[in-house]
Amino acid sequence: MRRETINREVKQEMGKGHKKLRVWQEAMELAKTVYRVTVELPSEEKYGLTSQMRRAAVSVPSNIAEGAARQGSKESTQFFTIARGSLSELDTQVELCRALGFLTPDNISLLTSQIETVDALLSGLIRYKKKI
């Protein structure tokens, strides 16, 4: 095989592992939901709460992907734990939105449900990685 062909095949395979993880898939859905619902926030929150929520939401699947790409369990667990921290930040920001009346009850409920799902999956993944 030519070197170009091998390089192309390696590149195609790289990055696919995390996409198979249900926790990554659910975290991506959560991030998309955050982007959709934060348009409801007041315009003066564009550089405040809106930006913080979006960054935290993007951080969750990003750190899951990075953890999945790492070789050692300890290294992977570190990135999965960072993802869980970002998820906790997002949960706090959703609670603040609830307290301030910035989001509809339906969107609060949707976000809370998605956060709980990702948290349960991520906690299970972390427990598994710590055992091996």
How does this structure look, described?
The chain is mainly α and 132 residues long. It has a single domain, classed as 23S rRNA-intervening sequence (de novo design (two linked rop proteins), Up-down Bundle), CATH 1.20.1440.60. It contains five helices and no strands. It has helices spanning 3-13, 22-37, 49-69, 73-100, 105-131. Mean pLDDT is 90; it is low at 5-14.
List keywords for this structure.
5 helices; 0% strand; single chain; de novo design (two linked rop proteins); mainly alpha
Give the tally of β-strands. Answer: 0
Q: What is the approximate shape? A: elongated
Binned, the helix content reads over 70%
Task: State mean pLDDT (0 to 100 scale).
Answer: 90
CATH overall fold name: de novo design (two linked rop proteins)
The low-pLDDT segments are 5-14
- CATH architecture term: Up-down Bundle
The assigned structural class equals: mainly alpha
Written as H for each helix and E for each strand, in order along the chain, the element string is HHHHH
Main sheet attributes: strand count, strand direction, barrel closure: none
Strand content: under 5%
The CATH superfamily turns out to be 23S rRNA-intervening sequence
Query: For the record, what CATH class applies?
Result: Mainly Alpha
| Radius of gyration based on Cα positions | 17 Å
What's the number of domains? Answer: 1
Discrete helix count: 5
| Distance from first to last alpha carbon | 36 Å
